[in-house]
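Researcher: We plan to redesign the surface later, but first we want a full-length starting point. Tokens attached.
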């Protein structure tokens, strides 16, 4: 629980907005499944944007889902630093 709160603060500082939900850490497989579900009916879906992020993952990286008012998405944390984001729900 403590790590999740640390990640919430890291992501909030990175995005410069409050984070309502933080969920994780997630596995690459879990993220792939969630993205496939959310992209049903859209050609290519989020997988095209996720593939380059996934390719750059290093051992020890953590993947979290986050939601703020807008946007929401996935963030990769390495140590205490955001190294990649997949932002969804942008207006």
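Model: Full-length starting sequence:
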């Amino acid at each position: 629980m403590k790590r999740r709160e640390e990640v919430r603060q890291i992501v909030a500082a990175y995005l410069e907005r409050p984070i309502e939900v933080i969920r994780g850490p997630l596995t690459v497989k879990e993220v792939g499944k969630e993205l496939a579900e959310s992209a049903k009916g859209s050609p290519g879906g989020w997988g095209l944007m996720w593939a380059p992020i996934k390719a750059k993952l290093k051992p020890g990286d953590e993947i979290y889902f986050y939601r703020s008012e807008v946007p929401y998405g996935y963030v990769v944390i390495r140590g205490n630093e955001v190294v990649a984001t997949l932002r969804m729900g942008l207006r």
